[in-house]
Design goal:
By secondary structure, the protein is α/β, with parallel strands linked by helices. The protein has a single domain, classed as Vaccinia Virus protein VP39 (Rossmann fold, 3-Layer(aba) Sandwich). It contains 8 helices and 7 strands. A 7-stranded mixed beta sheet has the order 3-2-1-4-5-7-6, with helices on both faces. A hairpin with an 8-residue loop joins strand 6 and strand 7. Helix 7 packs antiparallel against helix 8. The longest helix is centred in the N-terminal third of the chain and has 17 residues. It is globular. The two termini are about 30 Å apart. Bound molecules: S-adenosylmethionine. S-adenosylmethionine binds next to helix 2.
């Protein structure tokens, strides 16, 4: 991330926005029975700290940027708080099924290998674990232009994201996407219970039609 983007995403205003978004998602899908969470791409750690302090969960925040992890530890790294760990989302340093809940907020579009990041998310979640995903998607027409213009950011359409998530997750909830060029994609998934180990996820599992259609309406 550039310096300016980092200042913006580390601001208290951005943190409040993220927490508001999560409160809304939690109202739609209550994270019942969640003890241990993982926030991937936690930045300066505000959401992880909120989950710990206000929701009574313990867990970890990871980020690939050592400066972000240092900032998170400085701001929220007291004893008893979340652990903050430097890690790439595409290669998480956790065992299979360690977490009850995973969150990725505004991160996936930064990751060229976003599919691998989603596979890793699914791997470290318990079967039945919840996955809250908030990010940007592009309509197919805009995505085809964006793919030619950027190698830096991951580009995906709602269909691609929903289809890929459908490999290891069941869709639980999705919001009608908002925004013009960059659309907000907010959804909650549940890791499929049958996928007990991570020895080759079954590809091509069908996503329920209503979910795909609700995302297709975005384009
Ligand atoms: C736009 S910020 C969002 C931070 C936080 N989730 C939020 O919403 O405030 C994107 C974050 O993703 C992190 N990031 C980028 N690529 C990553 C990767 N491959 N693995 C883990 N984190 C990554 C960046 O370092 C940055 O902190």
């Amino acid at each position: 991330m550039g310096r300016l983007e980092k200042i913006l995403v580390n601001s208290s205003m951005h943190a409040r926005g993220n927490i508001k978004t999560l409160e809304k998602l939690f109202a739609a899908v209550t994270p019942e029975g969640v003890g241990i969470f993982l926030e991937i791409g936690c930045g300066a750690g505000a959401v992880a700290a909120w989950l710990n302090e206000k929701c009574g969960m313990s867990g970890a925040g990871t980020d690939v940027d050592p400066d972000q992890i240092a900032e998170a530890k400085k701001l929220h790294g007291d004893d008893g708080g979340p652990r903050f760990i430097e890690a790439d989302a595409t290669d998480l340093p956790f065992e299979n099924g360690e977490f009850d809940m995973a969150l990725i907020m505004n991160v996936l579009h930064h990751i060229g290998g976003w599919e691998k990041a989603l596979e890793e998310t699914e791997r470290v979640l318990k079967p039945g674990g919840l996955f809250y995903l908030c990010d940007f998607v592009l309509s197919p027409a805009v995505a085809s232009v964006a793919r030619r213009l950027t190698k830096k950011y991951a580009v995906y359409t709602p269909e691609e994201l929903a289809d890929f998530c459908g490999i290891g997750f069941e869709p639980v909830y999705s919001e009608k996407p908002s925004g013009a060029l960059l659309k907000n994609f907010r959804a909650v998934f549940r890791k499929k219970a049958w996928n007990k180990s991570h020895e080759g996820p079954a590809r091509g599992v069908q996503v329920p039609l209503d979910f795909v259609q609700s995302t297709r309406n975005m384009s």
